[in-house]
Amino acid sequence: xxxxxxxxxxxxxxxxxxxxxxxxxxxxxxxxxxxxxxxxxxxxxxxxxxxxxxxxxxxxxxxxxxxxxxxxxxxxxxxxxxxxxxxxxxxxxxxxxxxxxxxxxxxxxxxxxxxxxxxxxxxxxxxxxxxxxxxxxxxxxxxxxxxxxxxxxxxxxxxxxxxxxxxxxxxxxxxxxxxxxxxxxxxxxxxxxxxxxxxxxxxxxxxxxxxxxxxxxxxxxxxxxxxxxxxxxxxxxxxxxxxxxxxxxxxxxxxxxxxxxxxxxxxxxxxxxxxxxxxxxxxxxxxxxxxxxxxxxxxxxxxxxxxxxxxxxxxxxxxxxxxxxxxxxxxxxxxxxxxxxxxxxxxxxxxxxxxxxxxxxxxxxxxxxxxxxxxxxxxxxxxxxxxxxxxxxxxxxxxxxxxxxxxxxxxxxxxxxxxxxxxxxxxxxxxxxxxxxxxxxxxxxxxxxxxxxxxxxxxxxxxxxxxx
Length: 468
Known about the structure:
Structural class: alpha/beta
CATH topology of the largest domain: Rossmann fold
Distance between the termini: 54 Å
Helix content: 25-40%
Shape: elongated
């Protein structure tokens, strides 16, 4: 290894467990893998979890790099660009991959036992820093404690940033925008309107570089209460469709009406058959599940747009795990679907109904609502289904892709979640699959997103959400 000015990144095991493609994310800079990392990868390769699959993918990539290389070539570093699965101009100038081919020893503080894997990686990093004083040696790890210890012993460390969708969760697309008070005075000169299939449309001029997206909601600040959905933005023109008012009882969906403008926007998205994918973000009590179930039942039982409702979620407990559950797939998933049952009670509750009528309704719904485990989703195709993915903030981008790509012809997918309540220990607000899919789908004309902020569960729940 030459003493070049290019940076040298030491990858911790958790980075490769999280993203096997991390090997190719450091541009022209070199990567170093300590022997301890290879040992930990070997220990984590067994099993069917997402982490185990990532480890096996990492091992395959490393094997391709080493393929038929001599020991001298391995010592000199192996080119990464020749095995990149998506070779392009951007991958032509990748750095080299180095392995710990000889013992690298540096002095650690006496209170750090060298036999621990993390401390051996720190020791390797310090030895590389001493050997190559002109190179910026950096440890890349997702382990916060590892970064703290690294700083304490004088080794520069960083988090793995490439999996971040955004720099800050506050920058995430909200799905709606409030128009200023004088919007129509400045944009109304060349505006035209027309009606088509009982819907009202508007076309107006937009400025170059306008940051509007298809199916973004626009809400006016003035007293007119104008609300519209952007359908298209092209050639300096934006086409808007006047929003249906679901706050009125005559437009109720399974007895449910929107209690605020955000819920009204959500119901417009959920009830639109031209929108194949909807994501609803919001804190507890904003009505995500209730609105989605009401729209699903309306379009499945009454309008026959979908043959059945399928609901799934990531099974990550908030507290201690209760262990294995007996029964069939649906019976195992039932304890995780408390939110579904609670909201079904609200939707099927009607004044004056007898016990027999309630049981009949529940039996009918049980035949049209299926609860599925994420573990058995690979390889399946859902045709003409209303697929609800609950607690989607606990999914990785790869898991999210696996689920959404199950959608066949005529299927609508709805993702529900709250990125401030992530239970998975490996995800953050900026790396969760829910943030990833909201950002990637915002420009697609058949998708829509809305962030719900106003709680409607109860005054107690809203106060707790704001103050605890």
